[in-house]
Amino acid sequence: MAYLDVRDLRRSYVTPRGTAHVLGGVNLALDEGEFVAIVGYSGSGKTTLVSLLGGLIQPDHGEIVLDGAPVTGPGPERGIVFQQYSLLPWMTVHENVALAVDAVNPGRPAAERRRITDEFVALVGLTPAAWKRPSQLSGGMRQRVAVARGLAMRPKLLLLDEPFSALDALTRATLQDELLSIWGAHRSTVVLITNDVDEAILLADRIYPMTPGPGAVLGPAIEVGLPRPRARRHLSLEPAYQKARQAIVDFLRACRRPAA
Amino acid sequence: MAQSTVRALVLPLLGLAAVLLAWTALSQTVAPDLPSPLRTWQESRRYVLEPFFKDGEMNQGILRLAFYSLVRVAKGYLLALLLGTPLGFLLGLSRTFHQSFDPIVQFLRPISPLAWLPLGLVIFQKSEPAAVFTIALCAMWPTVINTAVGVRSISQDYLNVGRVLRLSRAKMLSKIIVPASLPYVFTGYRLSLGLAWLVIVAAEMLTGTPGVGGFLWQEYNSLVYSHIILSVVTIGAVGLALDRLMGLVEARIRAS
Fold it and tell me: Which residues contact A163 (CB under 8 A, 6 or more apart)?
């Protein structure tokens, strides 16, 4: 059995206009330390999939098994970096990260938890802003705090839900590069949800395109044959890059509904 | 000086002059028993210029009387917050609690202080605790309702952070629910203070306790009508000051 095993995940919502079938049987398997991206159009059900993996909502059908244990609810072993950051505005950067550190290390002494918090704040380069509140930070800095909080949970699986979609293109590129180097050092198991094909290729080992809903499923896996460590420069000229990009775009175009 | 500054200073003075003029006209024509502004001032000057003198139980400087009223309001208001805040959190947090008690809250909320006070006298047998009881009971509702609304409108995003971290119930409350609803809670506190001050006059009038309201009622019975106006003006001034003070506190809470 794979490290993360997702089998035939289905989920629908009851709306005033009837039942909306969002996910129609999602299958996914990840080995430990793999970085996988799921790419799809907006509104195809990507956030529903993250909420299910995170345990924030329950599936109608199917199951999720992480490291041999079935997922039944939310927990810090599946850290989530939310699209809208979800930082607590009444806490400083340090306090936001400390909330996660304290929650997953209840047995350790306060001084050590503080040192761990300092480490994660430093990891995302926010030591000078550690005592600022989210309202005093730029969008890029806020998302760095969210990444630091997600990593500070020391999760078995890190879920990134369109983490950079609210940022401008230059900031997004910087944060992608930073995430790439942090992942290179930590090698955690990551599922990245995105609508940005280039972001997926830059970061992931393997990419699953997601069909547009209703009843979204994942298409065949596309391996990104690019060696690591990767650098943004010249990457788009590599044949492997262009091959992966073509495969994803072809799949998404082919299954797009005629109306869209 | 800029033109807008001149306007901001002159126009309110003009408004005040118009009110004084209308008051004078009224006292000279249809209401001969109503003291004119000048007479009101002449008969009240000692109360204003020596605001802390004390000649007897009910014959005291206006600020001393206002102080008695403020102390009474403070007691009732603190009791209102002590009862109203937890009640509001319970109503916001628990669906069961909400379904059980929200109808009662909606039922009790519109009851006038005049109705509670005799009941307070029956329960406590003394005027002072009855007045505090009435103030608390009338002033707590905005705190209850705003707190409950504040808790229920907390963003799901914040709650999800707590769920992912599997925070204990106590931590969820202290780290997320209380800070997230604080702006609403303080709006409730401000409205409650306004109500508490509104109730004090009725409470003192009915119980005859020393304070601005008690003084007002006594001077009506002694036919010193100018002191009624003095009391009314004092009540308005203190009420305005309290509201501004809470507004400043609220702005600080929102800014942080």
Answer: A81, A83, A143, A146, A147, A175, A179, A192
A215 burial level (CB within 10 Å; 0-12, 13-18, 19+): middle
Mean pLDDT of B108-137: 88
Inspect the interface and report whether the beta carbons of B166 and A84 lie closer than 8 Å.
Answer: no
What is d(CA A36, CA A218) in angstroms, rounded to the nearest whole number? 12
User: Chain A residues with CB inside 8 Å of B180's CB?
Assistant: 88, 90
Residues of chain B contacting A100 with CB distance shorter than 8 Å: 165
Q: For all residues of chain A together, what is the average pLDDT?
A: 90
Q: Hey, are the CB atoms on B175 and A84 less than 8 Å from each other?
A: no
At residue A260, the pLDDT reads 45
User: Using one digit for the tens of pLDDT, what is the confidence trace for A118-174?
Assistant: 999 998 999 999 999 999 999 999 999 999 999 999 899 999 999 988 888 888 888
The CATH number of the structural domain formed by B35-255 is 1.10.3720.10
List, for residues A76-100, the tens digit of each pLDDT value.
999 999 888 899 999 999 999 999 9
**Which residue blocks in B50-126 are alpha helix, DSSP H?**
62-93, 95-108, 113-124
pLDDT in tens, B152-165: 999 999 999 999 99
Q: Where are the domains of chain B?
A: 35-255
Query: CA–CA separation, B193 vs B199, rounded Å?
Result: 10
Q: Could you give the count of Cα atoms lying within 13 Å of A88 in the half-sphere of its Cβ?
A: 26
CA closest to A133 among chain B residues: B256
CATH of A1-77+191-260, one of 3.40.1190.20, 3.20.20.70, 3.40.50.720, 3.40.50.300: 3.40.50.300
pLDDT digits (tens, 9 = 90+) for A186-227: 888 999 999 999 999 999 999 999 988 788 889 888 888 888
Residue spans of alpha helices (H) in chain A: 46-54, 93-104, 110-123, 139-152, 169-186, 197-203, 239-254
Which residues of chain B neighbour A75 with C-beta distances below 8 Å?
164, 166
Could you count the other beta carbons within 10 Å of the beta carbon of residue B49?
Answer: 10
- Residues B138 and B147: their CA atoms lie apart, in Å, by 16
- Work out the number of other CB atoms within 10 angstroms of the CB of residue A94: 22
The complex's ipTM?
0.88
